Amino acid sequence: MDKVPNQRAIFDRKTIVAQISKLAEEHDPQGFDFRTALLQLLKDTLSSGQAEIKRRFMANNKGRPSMHATCFLIDQLIRTIYDVASVHVYPLNNPTSEEKLSLLAVGGYGRGELAPHSDVDLLFLFPYKQTSWCEQVIEFCLYLLWDLGLKVGHSTRTPDECIRLAKKDITIQTALLEARYVWGDQDLSNELREKYFKDIISGNGKQFIEAKLAERDERHERFGNSRYVVEPNIKEGKGGLRDIQTLFWIAKFIYSTTSIPEMLSRGAFTQAERRRFQKASNFLRTVRCHLHYLTDRPEERITFDVQTELASRLGYKDHAGALGVERFMKHYFLVAKDVGDLTRIFCANLEAEQQKKNRLPIPGLGLLRRKVKGYSAEGGRLNFISEEEFKEDPVKILGLFHVAQQKDFDVHPEALRLIRQNLKLINRKVRLNPEANRLFLEMLTSKKDPETTLRRLSEAGVFGRFIPDFGRVIAQMQHDMYHVYTVDEHTIRAIGILAQIEQGALAEDHPLSHRIMPKIISRNVLFVAVLLHDIAKGRGGDHSVLGAEVAEKVCPRLGLSRSETETVAWLVRYHLLFSNVAFKRDIADPKTVADFVQIVQSPERLKLLLILTVVDIRAVGPNVWNGWKGQLLRELYYASETALTGGHVSEGRADRARHKKEELRAALPNWSEEEMDKHLDRFYESYWVATSLETQILHAEMLKKADAAGDTLTIEAHSDPFRSVTEVTVYTGDHPGLFARIAAAMSLSGANFVDAKIHTTTDGMALDSFVVQDHEGDVYRRMDKLRTTIRDTLSGKVKAHLELEKRTKTSIPSRTRVFKAEPSVLVNNVASNIHTVIEVRGRDRPGLLADLTRTLFTLSVTIASAHISTFGERVVDVFYVKDMFGLKITNKVKIKNIERKLILALEGTEKKKTRKSKTTSLEKNTS
């Protein structure tokens, strides 16, 4: 622990001791008055000391000195309290050999580092039997520390008990490794230290290392197993402080030191690596201190609601194309990556040293070195034969990873170390080298786990140097709830998912993609498109357009032909098109498919775009993909394929409706002709065009059953686990505002909407279908509650929209409230031939759909269908509507009024009505 400057400003021990002595003269040390006065004195001292430490930290923005200062403050406080207990309250004139006590700091406190709200871990050590004096002193110390508001973890043991327990528990073993004498009998502390080194450390290095590395892996698994999650845990997450501490624990166990100079002399690190290590460690400590001060609690997660303020406190400003918070988080992820690199380097050097000494058996020891395609292979890992060879021919750097992929080798940490130290060799000459580009393209498109190889290239720094545009998005995050990973992590995961689809590992989840993958004419085009689809994020413009420009430069370099380059650039330019149309437009509307096909133009592009869309969505995060999205993509694919291959998707609505009726008649052979004619006459043309045969059969049976029973309200539900949705159909008498009331009831029941269609029969009944999910994106299972709420709402027993307002007002603010989504309304008369399409964008919240549909009802707008898409905190709701006369809405005054009212509905009660909102409208006559 470094010496703390100007210590008296934090804790003036001499003055405090004098004040305590005076209190002891004025009051009985064992009396209540003495303890009350002592507690107040120590509270004031602790508070002023903490304030001084915080002042210094805010002035210099350095976490390590702040942690050392906090540790100094607590040391002095504990020493003072112990002295009060042993000198004034429970003095011993002739102490026996048993009446000894030693106070040791363990854990982070033992390392000499305490964040502002960290726990204080203490070990009370006594010789071999706990006496009443020891119990009294321990109790006095603990109660006083607790009364001061400190979070104290403690244990009371003898040295022999410590050793016995340490042999059984790796956690205790680690805690004792960092034990530091604070106060009391120092001989007891020395005795424990000697026994620990003799009985625990000696000869147990292998077991300790294996246990700590296994513990680290298990911890990584619990916290996302990626250093690129957008709400990282700075203490326990991958690349965080605990990983650094693990290295120090291993170093102390093996080298008996945590001194950086000593570790340098032992060859554990080079000077350059030491500087990286120190820089990473200091940055993480500083962020952790700010996090504790900002949240005023021992918070370790860098959550969305604190990221912006942390960035501001650390001096990150907004730049063109990147917010300050995104620049801060990018720095965090790069630091986490450095920690991972240094971990591998340290472990490699530790292994080499232990092999020399033969003190620590390592798996693979004794395997002979052999040459594999110009590289050295040992123990399943590939290395350079000499440092000079790749300096003379830097293309051998890429060749190393290429051979490792082909022959199923790992890359030796020593090779990674040499590469990191010589990254400047990957220059423009290497980037333009045809052989280097051939090797890279083969690794990217290999059928042997390209994801792992690309990850190795990225972690070694080679990827970002060889493809500089990719280097710009390494650790690039987007400050929203939708994107779980950084851009580089997302891209590499997408490549891995593409490889899994090709190999059939995801055939059950993506049957269509798996089936058409072998029919792709150029695998290279698809893999390169996935690699480049997000390459231009963070540049301050439309990343799809900018990415297409990057593709036009990169593809020829990689050896792609002009036609392949054009296709890759097109895929990057339109990589969001498939999902935008499938999720936000009515696929049953022929105009939707016609407009989509006009852009796609070829069956090959359709196949490529579908697969790119699937892997892009799947790689966003673990819970983003679901079966409903897959179903929508498949429906759009099949409709577009039919159009592109000469089908009749654009045939007249009347013809399509007639064909659908004929299909239903054939599918229900048990119905009499009179029953069938009556049913077919109940629906308008729009119903037959917009629903599938499977749905029509379900509706027909439902209506027949309801009519026979004379039910005025029928609610049926059908769950589809493959699509991860539940379709709820409500059949009842039609009346104004029905859709809005049902939507409010369903929101009140916790159902999340993904689609809705509204149909009115010729005899005045309404058939409304809602596709819903639970909050986890799975089928909705609470149907009893849903049915009851809908019935109570339609009967007037429950005012669902009022209940939703009440629930919103009383709900606890979410940590995601920091995210803003500018409300906007787009009124589009081009997307459909018979409907006006209203696209609403804004911040998602419970009951939003109910508010929007209620608003449209008050505006005398009839909804034909609704399509709901959520992207983290943002929602995009699309409504296909007509006016009260069944026509498109073309009146400009009416459109402006719709925009204004929907903006107010989007804002709800969370924003002031004086807010100025941007609205846009697209008003064009149908040609």
Primary descriptors:
927 residues, alpha+beta, Beta Polymerase, domain 2, Four Helix Bundle (Hemerythrin (Met), subunit A), 5 domains, nine-stranded mixed beta sheet, four-stranded mixed beta sheet, 11% strand, globular
CATH class of the largest domain: Alpha Beta
User: Order of strands in the sheet with the most strands?
Assistant: 9-10-12-11-15-16-14-13-17
Beta-strand proportion = 5-15%
Distance, first to last CA? 78 Å
CATH architecture annotation name of the largest domain: 2-Layer Sandwich
Helix content: 55-70%
CATH homologous superfamily annotation of the largest domain? Beta Polymerase, domain 2
Largest sheet: 9 strands, mixed
How many domains, in number, for the residues? 5
Question: How many beta-strand elements?
Answer: 17
Helix vs. strand class = alpha+beta
Overall pLDDT confidence: 85
- Our count of helices gives 40
CATH fold node name of the largest domain: Beta Polymerase, domain 2
Low-pLDDT residue intervals, each spanning 5 or more residues: 358-367, 909-927
Inertia-based shape: globular
Radius of gyration: 34 Å
